[in-house]
Design goal:
It is built from 6 helices and 8 strands. It has helices at about 40-50, 80-85, 90-100, 115-130, 145-160, 170-175, and strands at about 5-10, 15-25, 30-35, 55-60, 65-70, 135, 165, 180. α3 crosses α4. The model has no long low-confidence stretch (mean pLDDT about 90).
Length: about 190
């Protein structure tokens, strides 16, 4: 069953961020949420995941989410393998790290990884988690074109079975979304 958002509103003080947002997220494929910076995209994702409560509206058919946030949010005391294995068994974690091109970096800690490597660990962790829906909030920040292409293939493969919600300003990535909604800042 698709996830349905009905009349979602959210304000911070006197500033209305989301104003009666209604949309339906399909059971598979890539669903894009686009709009200018500050328009409420990340707030909408946080509400969808249950990290924030809307001021009004409802969400039907809540699911279990896996998220790649704008920040990598790696645990500094754990290796790359440990960060991914925090959401699955080590064998599956190792497989995902290999798929994102980090087969030689299992034992590196976040401070030993480049920005692009850290990003790939965060993506591997999100893909390894047994979620119903994958959320990607500016997922390819800091990745080189070649890496974007290979990871895009992994995400498209994932989206054949489960829904992916994509938030990005990257025009090439926007083309992946089979359905999308544009969020505009409330006045």
């Amino acid at each position: 069953m698709p996830i349905t958002l009905k009349n979602i509103t959210k304000s911070y003080g006197d500033r209305k961020i989301l104003d009666n947002i209604s949309l339906e997220i399909p059971d598979e494929g890539i669903f894009g949420i686009f709009g200018p910076s500050g328009s409420g995209k990340t707030t909408l994702l946080r509400i969808l995941c249950g990290l924030e409560v809307p001021d009004g509206g409802e969400i039907e058919n809540r699911k279990k989410f896996s998220v790649v946030f704008q920040e990598d949010r790696l645990m500094p005391s754990m290796t790359a393998l440990g960060n991914v294995a925090a959401v699955c068994d080590e064998k599956k974690a190792a497989e995902w790290l290999k798929k994102v091109g980090l087969g030689e970096s299992f034992n590196k800690f976040p401070h030993e990884l480049s920005g692009g490597m850290s990003r790939r660990v965060a993506i591997a962790r999100a893909l390894a988690f047994d979620a119903d829906v994958l959320i990607l909030d500016e997922p390819f920040k800091g990745l080189e074109t070649e890496l974007k292409e290979s990871i895009t293939e992994l995400i498209c493969e994932y989206a054949q079975k489960k829904p992916v919600i994509l938030v990005t300003h990257d025009e090439e990535l926007k083309k992946l979304a089979s359905k999308s909604v544009k969020i505009m800042l409330s006045e």
